[in-house]
Amino acid sequence: MENVTLTVEMAVVLGILALTVFLFVTEFFRIDFSAVFIMVLLGLLSQLPGLENLADTRHLFDGFASNAVISIIAVMIIGAGLDKTGLMSKVAAAILKYGGSTEKRIVPIISSTVGVISSFMQNVGAAALFLPVVSRISVRTEIPLSRLLMPMGFCAILGGTLTMVGSSPLILLNDLIQTSNQLLPADQQMRPFGLFSVTPVGASLVVTGILYFMIFGRWVLPRTNTSKAATGQSVGDYMKRLYGLKTDVVEVIVPDGSALLGCAFQDLMEGEHIYVIGSYHKGQKWFAPVVTTQVETPCRLALLGRRKVIEKWASGFDVTVLPRLNIFAEDYAPTNAGVGEIVVPPDSELIGQCAREVRLRGTYGLNLLAIHRGDHTLSLVETEDHTATAIGAEPFRAGDTLVVFSRWEALARVTKDRDFVVVTSNFPMEELRPQKLLWALLFFVISISMILFSDVALALCLFTGAAGMILTQVVRIDEAYEAVSWSTVFLLASLIPLGLAVQNTGTAQWIAQQILTLLDGWPIWALQAGIAVLATVFTLVMSNVGATVLLVPLAVSIAVSIGADPAIFALTVAISTSNSFLIPTHQVNALIMGPAGYKVVDFVKSGGVMTVLFLIVSLFMMNVVFG
Q: Whole-angstrom Cα distance, residue 329 to residue 278?
């Protein structure tokens, strides 16, 4: 290796690297702004004499148009499109159905699924697609998002080592091997790796990641309290805290031939202090069914009331009370339904009419739970503060606050009605489009097929899918803009000039030279470990592609000089550039940082152990499989 001498430019780059790490770890500024600040600093310093190679100001902002950043934007839009169809809710429901609701069962299911998906598509794409799924699971189970996203994100990165198309460094590896072969004698030529050659190594890494979080997750994962919207509160807690009403959402099974056959929901509600908020009969569901509807058997009912009252009532009619929601689990999950508050304005045409007269359930999809009037609350349930009131027959007055339980989509429609003023604001006012599912799946499959079976640039493949979803109105253009995490975009795009500066000024070569000088004369396994550590360090401060292109030729020459297998040394670089867990400079880590409320120290704490485990397992498995 040609001797590299430390220059002023290299010293400046090393100083900027130290400043970057300091800003990231201390979070003196928000991390995305710190990245922008570093980019601007590079641009300004490059104007000084002797520092021209720090950055080309004509291309300083090219990171915003880079293949990686554009790909992230596209995959976020594709994820939003799939979520709009309700597909991600179904995936979340399936995971909860088969995996239960405990952290120790959910984490391995999510992590292994994402790990497998990221073996054939970019790991940030797999993570972005599952982000809405994990968010919904977090709300449903009340497990903090910070306990779920890091295992998912880390396993998405690890999954990129399962196949030779799972990550950019592995995709590049065979090309770099062919280039290096031109300089090697015939007896030292390296054979290219097959698609699944690295699968044993990658599978071991994914299993290690899952076991790591299952065993040590309780200590290494943070419990970040992100802001909880109304969707994160249980109905019972909300009603008890604000109105002193104790309620639960309960599902019951009414058997065939039950004495309730023919009983109107209205009579059931007024006589038993129970709200019928949903019904299921012969494969059809009704939400907020009309109160005059009669019970047909066999059926299932979703009831809202005190569980002990419902159980007492059910025992008299041979009705089975389920321990948890089953058929209605997804429909009345906090992500899809909850408590809302609506004020009757002075000019409302509904003043003087009651809920039954305006068909509040049938017309608006609203289950009226209570009417808050002045300083007291009217409801069907008797409390210490007031007696039970037939609120369905109570005429509305100007200023009444109607407390309703409804699906969020129904409440969103009411926001457009001038007869009501919806005062609940922190609920998902999203319009689901299940009728667009086939379009969404079509363009998702087109994108994946283009990635796997063509040489078209990744960003173009993904934006083909994103543009197709916008074109077919799976997701509207304004919703597409809202789906993009712009803080993630700015963080990653702003760090790209720093990686280029490390490479273009020769700083990377100088660092590599210093480390290899220290390892001179060490045994083969120590040199391989040194290459792995070097690749790990480089991928934290520059792109994994840049680190791979820089280090593979270096690793091959070192292996040849000491009589080691150059293919294993080259593979060591390509695998180790996925060992990026210490700081949120990797695309996946940047993606999950905001939603989970992670701090950089959280990555240092959890990622530090993962980094060491990665090195140990990957080096061991590479020598077992290819040694």
A: 11
